[in-house]
Amino acid sequence: MGLKQIALSYADLHFAVFPLSPKDKRPAIAEWNKHATTNKVVIKKWWDENPFYNIGIATGLPSGGLIVVDLDIDDEKGKNGIERLNKWQNDYGVHIPFNTATARTGRGGVHIFYRDVDTVYRNAADLFKDGSGVDVRANGGYIVAPGSVHPNGTPYEWINHPLVFGVAQTDAVVKALLSPTDKSSADPFKSPDVIGEGERNSALFKLASSMVAKGLSREAILAAVIAENDTKCVPPLDASEVETIVNSAWRYPNGTSPYNNAVSKPNTDNLSTDLVTLSAAEEKDPEWLIDGYIPRREITIIAGDGGTGKSFTWCALAAAVSTGHKSFLQNNLFANAPDKAPEKVLFFSSEDSYEYVLRRRLRKNGANLDNIKTLDCADDRFHAVTLNSDYLEKLIAAHRPALCIFDPIQAFVGGANMISRSEMRECMKRLHIYGEKYGTTFLLIMHTNKMQSVWGRNRLSDSSDIWDIARSVMIAGKADENGLRYLSHEKSNYGPRGKTVLFKILDETVTFQNYTDKRDREFVLEASKITRETPATDEAENFIISYLEEHGGSCEVKDLDNTAAACGIKNNAIKTAKQRLKTAGKIKIESTSRGQGKGFAWRVFLHPC
């Protein structure tokens, strides 16, 4: 794969890229920080100009809160960032997650990739202030990406490819590592006298986690953290954000702080022992927000690769809920079902602007915009919206939406490690509570892991079996190269799976085309087969044309087939190539006489009239 194709693949991962000089770390363009992009037209233009450009990835905000821990190795300067990070982990008895995208640098160092949409971190050179080779690349910085070549001639390579491992969210330990407080101190809980804007969340979370581990009550912890915020943070965080931080620390699995192995057990003294007797319980039939596809008060997931129409899809569904009209999913199967009452929708998107993109899409899909509300991602409150936050409950309680959408889920897990099954269940369990309490249905939009030739739940496998947590799962994909897309209903806990819906996006409107019994598996395998066979078929076509030209424009079919086999061209490839060339009018095949008494033979002719 060439450097251009590699750079384009990074754009699919939402990494903002720009060109570096060939076999160099230096930017090849001026003001790279303003021009780093995921726009494929721009990326193609750069690498068409020079296909040997190295690839730079802008860290921080341009790449969706990308943070890279840079572990340098330089024997001459006595740097070994890997050993220094291990020492820090051993000193405090903690471990940062390594089950994330990780790369080997040209000098044998390591880049470890994380995301954090809650806190804006900046570059930090010499993180431990001891020249040991641990740096942080964040807002305002960049890294040299795998596929590039170091000035010493060594390539940068993936250890854990992001297509397989994804990019993990920062957990409490990573946040502590990134905190600019003095990490050489024997007391990792001592905060500085002044806590700056980029340090506040990490420092307060660390303080709260240490107090949870010591067994303090939630009220005492909240009071202490509020006091720390008011006296040391510049500027102080809002009270709601402080409460969110404390709640996150309080819910840390088993109450274990990453800074202390003590365990805080919840107080159960005042809890009732009454339980539900099933003979007195009411049986309820499932209710549907979108008949057959999205159950009410539950979690539904729509997953897919970039460019498969996920955001267009949820805009169309939100529009249907806001008006009460049937959605494109119900085009024919529920044609006689009456419309429902219009209902409210909340959505939170970290990827598309509601002003420049989403309002228009919703309007074109017929939405009642009075029934749809959101929060600008530039609003300070936006970072307080996570799947398990108290602030989310406040918003739901205040607006009582029938549908609440998060796009993508990866941006709203509040620091939970998506590779950890227990952390994701802890993160998402409150959505079930909110569903029952407020009647809200949750639609989570999710990037798939882009592993090749896998389907269904395996496409969500890098995200802690979120498949099991959801009650309904749909996967979006491309059905052909002419704009036809599919939405395959892969899981349904409350009834049979709905038919796969084929649709097109015309003028930003989702337009129903048909239903099919094919599932994601069949589409993936077909695409995989085409990917495998196309190069072989192209090679076979070239062989046929060349062979005919060398033999005066025609030959017997069996001679052509035997020669192709001798050249290592597979029978299926030569058959497909002949069919394609016939369809294109480049060859014809017909039965011809070999001469008197010699019978007939099938011959292939070049350029038939």
Secondary structure topology:
Blueprint: H1 3-12, E1 16-20, H2 32-35, H3 40-49, E2 54-58, E3 66-71, E4 73-74, E5 79-80, H4 81-92, E6 102-104, E7 110-115, E8 134-137, E9 142-144, E10 157-160, H5 162-165, E11 168-169, H6 172-178, H7 200-213, H8 218-232, H9 239-250, E12 288-290, E13 294-295, E14 299-304, H10 310-323, E15 345-349, H11 354-364, E16 372-374, H12 390-399, E17 403-407, H13 421-438, E18 441-447, H14 466-469, E19 472-478, E20 485-492, E21 500-506, E22 509-516, H15 520-550, E23 554-556, H16 557-566, H17 571-583, E24 587-593, E25 600-606
Parallel strand pairs: 7-11, 14-18, 14-19, 15-16, 15-17, 17-18
Antiparallel strand pairs: 1-2, 2-9, 3-7, 3-8, 4-5, 6-7, 6-10, 12-13, 19-20, 20-21, 21-22, 23-25, 24-25
Helix pairs in contact: 1-3, 6-7, 7-8, 7-9, 8-9, 10-11, 15-17
Describe the protein:
This protein has 609 residues and is of the alpha+beta class. The chain has four domains: 3-169, Prim-pol fold; 179-265, no CATH class; 287-518, P-loop containing nucleotide triphosphate hydrolases (Rossmann fold); 529-606, Winged helix-like DNA-binding domain superfamily/Winged helix DNA-binding domain (Arc Repressor Mutant, subunit A), CATH 1.10.10. 33% of the residues lie in helices and 20% in strands. The chain contains 17 helices and 25 strands. The strands form six sheets. A nine-stranded mixed beta sheet has the order 16-15-17-18-14-19-20-21-22. Strands 3, 6, 7, 8, 10 and 11 form a six-stranded mixed beta sheet that branches. β21 and β22 (509-516) form a beta hairpin. The longest helix has 31 residues, at 520-550. The chain is globular, with a radius of gyration of 29 Å.
